[in-house]
Amino acid sequence: RMGKSGSWQTPQGGVDGGPKQETVIEAASRELYEEVGLKNNDHVILEQIDCELPVPLKCKYKTTGTGSWLEKEGFVGQELNWVIFRCANSNLERDPSQMTNLSGLNGEDPEFSAVRWENIDWVVDNVWEKKARPYRVLQEALQPLMKRWDERCAEPLFTGRWARDASRSVGVVEGLIARGLSEEKATKKAEEPYIQDWQQHRDKREWSVLTYDIDGETPRRELLYPLGDFEEVFEGESTLFGGTDGGVVKRSCFYLAEIDADESNPIAHVTVSETPRGKEESLRYMKNG
Length: 289
Prior knowledge:
Blueprint: H1 24-36, E1 44-46, E2 58-62, H2 69-72, E3 77-81, E4 85-87, H3 90-94, H4 120-126, H5 132-153, E5 160-163, H6 172-178, H7 183-191, E6 195-200, E7 207-212, E8 219-225, E9 228-234, E10 247-257, E11 267-275, E12 278-284
Helix pairs in contact: 4-5, 6-7
């Protein structure tokens, strides 16, 4: 946070009054945009709270001795309400410094000089001491929410055999052409059967994926999708990765909130691949059943 060397905190601000007073969520969404340039329902999604919390997501604290404008205006304290958002953008998940805008938007002055992801325990230890109490409340309230997120990610959403429905595919031909295929070959390949078996791995959030040849019976490739960064070695020619002599592709797997997914489990399993042809991102989520 600017003006407090070595101190970190989340974006924050007041609820605007006036004829049309903001709700807490509206105020949080506005402040998130003004201070770091992130938009609700785009870069982030409001957290779905479907479990009991040990403490409310709010607390009152004294501002005496902080030297803040609140103290100077004669206020003895304020109530802080927490609003929880989930990351819904793969670039933001991997490197928030590349996705945020810290210049101050909507005419506001900048308040931060850097951003990064950290776990809540680190945040509590490094927040400005005068504001530590609200963060300790958040730390306690987050425990069941973090557990619930892990449970969602471990659900067997994708278990079973999946086949691509070419009649519903969008942009496949164009994508194959961009990878170097002729229009004729791209059209033919887009219509070929594409069948995979997905099975949960040991910790349930990781997946073992078996891809079949176009006959739907002959195994062609089996790959483990672990969480985090990993490398995949491929041999021979590859339409996806490019080249004819094999190579190594850097990949990363993680879960994101997904606004288009079913409300019962609004998450997506994401794989980002850095290939000789560029970056490719794959999102997998359940929609309409």
